[in-house]
Structure formats: structure tokens, C-alpha cells
Amino acid sequence: MAAIRLVAHSPAEPGWRDRLKVHLLGLGPDSRVNRFFAWVSDAQVERYAATAAPEIVIDALEDGAVIGVAEVYRRPDMAGAAEIALSVDEGHRHAGIGQALVDRALDEGRRRGFADLFFFFRKSNRAMQRIADHAGMEPVASGDPGIAEVHARLRGQVDRLALVAPGRVIAL
Ligand SMILES: CC(C)(COP(=O)(O)OP(=O)(O)OC[C@H]1O[C@@H](n2cnc3c(N)ncnc32)[C@H](O)[C@@H]1OP(=O)(O)O)[C@@H](O)C(=O)NCCC(=O)NCCS
């Protein structure tokens, strides 16, 4: 198998929208529902790839093809907050690519000054729950019984090791 590279860039990267389109069109029905929270047709996927406006993109690339992507969107409803959308090609699952993309998205979000990062996923999406748990993200009430929302604080993080000093809190 060719080496897989993670590359962070803006959506203005030449050719990216076409590579994103090919990747998203390759997602089967269940994956599309997990990714978009509803069934989406090929035409809708194509429109999405042509118009998506994430602030940061992290591609997992193999031989120049996008085999996974984390799109980081600024949240219009919350200052300094961003939201991640994630997808990995069905032929490349269970290889740690989704986790690596989220870990890199958290790093990039922190580096670019976001204070909070969220993602949403269907409660039946066990892979996303594992990824959120491994990334140390905490649950938030999404308000939708079928949708999980998780959150990571990127700025002003509490130092958890300091909190467990014997018998007292030594840093907040
Ligand atoms: C969610 C998704 C990105 C995971 O990608 P991936 O590259 O297979 O994930 P990883 O290989 O990093 O696996 C992460 C964890 O999930 C687990 N996992 C992966 N697929 C799983 C599945 N179908 N059921 C249960 N656990 C699963 C892995 O074992 C791993 O956990 P572990 O480290 O404790 O063993 C991929 O399934 C996908 O693209 N789904 C469709 C789109 C989507 O759901 N997007 C999320 C909402 S925007």
C-alpha cells in the first residue's frame, strides 16, 4: 500500500474540489447518511463539493487521491468555535485514518486560534464515538435524540494532571 499523508490546506487549493467530489461520491448509502445526516443524491454531493466553505481542510492522501478528509467549519452561532465533518473511503476504514484526521484537526484548530471544537454524529455511529473518546472529547446535549454532540476546549484547557495533586487543586 502506498504511504498515506495528511495535508492541511484551505479550500482554495487547486483541484481540491474535484478530489473531494470523487471521494464523497465513493461513499455508499450508509456512509452518506452518517456523513450528511440524511440521504444525499450524487447531484447533491456534487453541489456540496463545489460549494463547501470549510475554514481548514485536512486531506488524507494516497497517490494524490483524497482517501479521507476532515473539514473544519467556523460555527456562525458561537465566537471562536469550529465544527469538524469527517469521512474516510470505505476501502481504507479501520486503519486509524479517521482518528489521525481528527487529531490533526484538533491541532490545526488550536494553532489557528479556535477556542472550542465540536463534532456531531449519529448515536449509532460507533466509530465516531470511539474517535471522540480517544480524542478526549466530552459529550454535550445536542437537543436531538438521534444525534451525539461532543466538544473539546482548545484554549484555556484545564491541566488535568495538576488537578489530581494529592488532596488539593493546584491549578485551574
Ligand atoms: C467514522 C469514520 C470517519 C471512521 O473512519 P476510520 O478511518 O475507519 O476510523 P479509525 O480507523 O480511525 O477507527 C477509529 C475507531 O473506531 C473504531 N471503528 C471503526 N469503524 C468501526 C465500526 N464500524 N464499528 C465500531 N467501531 C469502529 C476503530 O476500531 C477505532 O477504535 P479503536 O482504536 O478503539 O479500535 C468512517 O467510518 C466514515 O467515513 N464514516 C462515514 C462518515 C461519517 O460517519 N462521518 C461522521 C459524521 S460527520
UniProtKB/TrEMBL annotation:
**What positions does the domain N-acetyltransferase occupy?**
7-159
Q: To which species is this protein native?
A: Albidovulum sediminis
The record's annotation in Pfam families points to:
Acetyltransf_1
* Annotated CDD domains: NAT_SF
What InterPro entries is this protein classified in? Answer: Acyl_CoA_acyltransferase, GNAT_dom
User: What is this protein's name?
Assistant: GNAT family N-acetyltransferase
PROSITE patterns reported in the protein's UniProt record: GNAT
Can you tell which superkingdom this protein's organism belongs to? Bacteria
